[in-house]
Amino acid sequence: DTAVSQTPKYLVTQMGNDKSIKCEQNLGHDTMYWYKQDSKKFLKIMFSYNNKELIINETVPNRFSPKSPDKAHLNLHINSLELGDSAVYFCASSGQPNNSPLHFGNGTRLTVT
Amino acid sequence: GDSVTQMEGPVTLSEEAFLTINCTYTATGYPSLFWYVQYPGEGLQLLLKATKADDKGSNKGFEATYRKETTSFHLEKGSVQVSDSAVYFCALSDPMIKAAGNKLTFGGGTRVLVKP
User: Fold this and answer.
1) CA separation, residue B102 to residues A1, A8, B91 (Å)
2) How confident is the model at residue A66 (pLDDT cuts 50, 70, 90)?
3) Which residues in chain B are contacts of A92 at CB distance < 8 A?
């Protein structure tokens, strides 16, 4: 009964490929997020969706496209992968009120070779 | 823009030692403050939070007090255990950002290693 689950846990792929990461939450939260954690553990928000609507898009290349089929799912599709995309990607969700804590998934380690 | 600065690690301690991780912030509004912990191979977990000045968040023996005058939210634990070895992140959410949801700005993380 994992609260925020993302798949796959590990993803190794070559430059130029297209890949997707899936995320699902069973907490009934309205808001979901994607964060990127680099090799130095620095975390930066990429996207946020509220009830399937994009509300935060932080200067992320167009190669990254989030998709939210319903408020319990937020998938991340990446086109034309580059070496610099290698990182750990975390999905998260939060409920109300606006300053409620985020609940994170266990991360997807993406390695681009 | 908003920012969070925390001490760089790694911090290496012996079991039962006192732990302090400094965190200071810059925000346009009156933010809520959080500490998250990341154990190896896992996602971040909320450790504690404070939403207004002089609030003290506490959990699992950890404490942090929201100090508006010094814009700080230092994390402390009186007696650490080996199981406290992890990366600790200070974070803020700024209510001046009116978007729905909770956009967190994170510090760079501090790795803590507790030796038996």
Assistant:
1) 24, 25, 11
2) very high
3) 43-44
Read off the pLDDT of residues A6-50 as tens digits, 9 standing for 90 and up. Answer: 999 999 999 999 999 999 999 999 899 999 999 888 999 999 988
Q: Of B53, B99, B35, which Cα lies nearest the Cα of A98? A: B99
- Give the 3-state secondary structure of residue A86: coil
**Rounded percentage of chain A residues whose pLDDT exceeds 70:** 98
Phi, psi of B36 (to 5 degrees): -115, 155
Q: How far is A105 from chain B (nearest CA, A)?
A: 5
Start-to-end CA distance of chain B, whole Å, equals 41
**Tokens of residue A83, six digits:** 């070496």
Q: Give CA torsion, residues A84, B93, B74, A46, to 10 deg.
A: -10
Per-residue confidence (pLDDT) for residue B9, from 0 to 100: 86
Which pLDDT score, from 0 to 100, does residue B2 have? 85
Contact B108 A50 (CB under 8 A): no
Span B1-8, mean pLDDT?
A: 89
Q: What is the DSSP letter of B76?
A: E
Half-sphere exposure of B106 (CA within 13 A, CB side): 25
Q: How many CB atoms lie within 10 A of CB A103?
A: 21
Q: Specify whether the CB–CB gap between B86 and B39 falls below 8 A.
A: yes
Sign of CA dihedral A111, B2, B6, B8: positive
- A31 CA: distance to closest CA in chain B (Å): 6
